[in-house]
Amino acid sequence: MLLVGEVDRSALLVRAVARGQHALVDVVGQVVDGIQPVFAASEADAVGRDFYAVRGTRDFDAHGLGAMVTRVDRPFLDRQANVYELDHRWTPNAQLGIRSTVVASEVRTAGGGGARRNIRDSGVQVRIDYDMGEGWRQQLYAVHLGDELQLNDFGFLERNNFNYARYDLARRVTGFAETSPYSAKDWHWALSRRTNDQGLHLADAVAINRRGERRDGGSDFAELAAYSRGHDDLITRGNRAVAMPAKLFAHYQRSRPRQGDSRWEMSGSVRYSAGGLGGIDEGRGAFYVEPTYHVNDRLSFFGGLELVHHGDWLLWRGGNLLGSYRADQIFLNSGAVWVIGDRQELRVRLEAIGLDARARQAWRVAADGEPVAVDEPIPDFALRNLGFQIRYRYELAPLSHLYIAYVRGGELYDEGVRGSGGAAGFDGRGAGRQFSDAFNLRDSEQLLVKLSYRFEI
Fold first, then answer.
1. Distance CA 437, CA 403 (A)
2. Residue 336 main-chain phi, psi, to 5 deg
3. Is residue 236 within 8 Å of residue 267, measured between CB atoms?
4. DSSP-based three-state secondary structure for 77
5. Cβ atoms 103, 151 nearer than 8 A
6. Is 340 left (phi over 0), alpha (psi -120 to 50) or beta?
7. What is the pLDDT of residue 51?
8. 4-31 burial by CB neighbour count: b if 16+ within 10 A, else e?
9. pLDDT tens digits for 184-225?
10. In this structure, are residues 45 and 76 in contact, taking their beta carbons and an 8 Å threshold?
11. What does residue 48 show for φ and ψ, rounded to 5 degrees?
12. Tens-place pLDDT, residues 415-457
């Protein structure tokens, strides 16, 4: 059942998605005079959810206000989640801008013994931007997320139980000589601190990055960041925070569009991240390259390949047991785009992963958080994954589309002790063999039809 509130002078977008025995229907009201009347959606399924949202905004000369309320009902889980949000924007002059947001969540869910639990918490963020002129800018950003703040029923919150403060100094440089490959560069220097809501120190960090706009129409980005010793309070899923050594991260990426009559464009990146217990010399190295070939302005093919080596990959193995792994991974991301005409297009997408991980060391987390090496067996593991999609889109009318998609995919996870036969099907044949075997997966195969139609009342 869909409930629609005030919709006078509003346009509605109605979508219906059929997928096997599952269906989603939603109604969206268009923004009118700063108010979006309603968003309502219902999943027609035994474990489905009902979504509701309303938002209003009002702008003044130097201020702006906004408020939003969302509600999600999940009968299968006996759970109702409400989120209340208030945001404010203040721009006292052309150089200074202050934005703040306050959010609160209220979740009612089943507890032990049939009792119901009410979980309430809140969060706040503030961002202050100051333009100093001549290309220099400053930003101060702070966020507090309570340890029981819950936003993921409707939106997405990477983590709660978190306090973060960052100071960022930036400078934009232009006016390069005509012979320079760059037309502009943006530099950022940042300092930050992270703790959780109980005051546990997670890490301090310093970072520098530079984004370049190149005269060939492309861009590049480079970043270097160092983290102090601290703690990881998430990896053991509540079974003690782990004391972590210093960390190092480095990244460079480059994109280059088509040049002149060339049919090729290129992009790629290299990364290094040392975030495990092995120190900064035993990190994760990754190389990615993605060429795109344009047959013409309407048809193109692309193929991206990523090779990854983990020198010391730290993973949770249950309770307060951790495992360090040396692993190799191959990732393929390829496809094609064909714009058949002004009203229709065909897209093909293929993704495949092959991963092979070999156990190095088992660790137990002591009472003080220090990881202690132990002589306990932990299994090697391997993973292969495949996703393939053909999607056709036809425009029935402006903002109204018909989608038809064929989807095939699969995943296989194996683990065992290398060289002893291990679990059934595990042989530890390396990432290359796992990658090639991924193309034989066919766990699911579906044909989807989606209709999105806009009308006015």
1. 31
2. -150, 150
3. no
4. helix
5. yes
6. alpha
7. 86
8. eeeeeebebbebebeeeeeebebbbbee
9. 999 999 999 999 999 999 999 999 999 999 999 999 999 999
10. no
11. -75, 175
12. 986 654 444 345 557 999 999 999 999 999 999 999 988 877 6
Tokens 């509130």 sit at which residue?
A: 5
Residue 159's closest CA among 170, 142, 146, 175?
A: 146
DSSP state for residue 33 in the 8-state scheme: T
DSSP category for residue 76: G
What does the angle CA 71 – CA 47 – CA 37 come to, to the nearest 5 degrees? 25
Length of the chain: 457
Identify the helix (H) or strand (E) that includes residue 435: helix 431-437
Distance, CA of 167 to CA of 188 (rounded, Å): 10
Per residue in 91-112, pLDDT (tens digit) is: 999 999 999 999 999 999 987 6
Does residue 326 or residue 36 have the better pLDDT?
326
What is the helix (H) or strand (E) element at residue 431, kind and residue range? helix 431-437
Digit-coded pLDDT (tens) for 346-402: 999 999 999 999 999 999 999 999 999 999 999 999 999 999 999 999 999 888 999
Token pair 């994760």 is found at 284
Give the Cα separation of 63 and 100 in Å (integer): 11
CA 81/CA 49 separation, integer angstroms? 11
Q: How many CB atoms within 10 Å of residue 308?
A: 19
**434, containing H or E segment:** helix 431-437
**Cα 409 from chain centre:** 21
Whether the CB-CB separation of 220 and 209 falls below 8 Å is answered with no
The distance of Cα 400 from the centroid of its chain, to the nearest Å, equals 28
Tell me, what's the pLDDT at 64?
A: 95
Average pLDDT over residues 323-333: 96
Torsion over CA of 318, 319, 325 and 328, rounded to 10 degrees? 30
**Contacts with 194 (C-beta within 8 Å, 6 or more apart), sequence order:** 162, 163, 164, 201, 202, 203, 204, 205, 230
Tokens 């232009």: give the residue. 174
Q: Is the pLDDT of residue 292 over 80?
A: yes
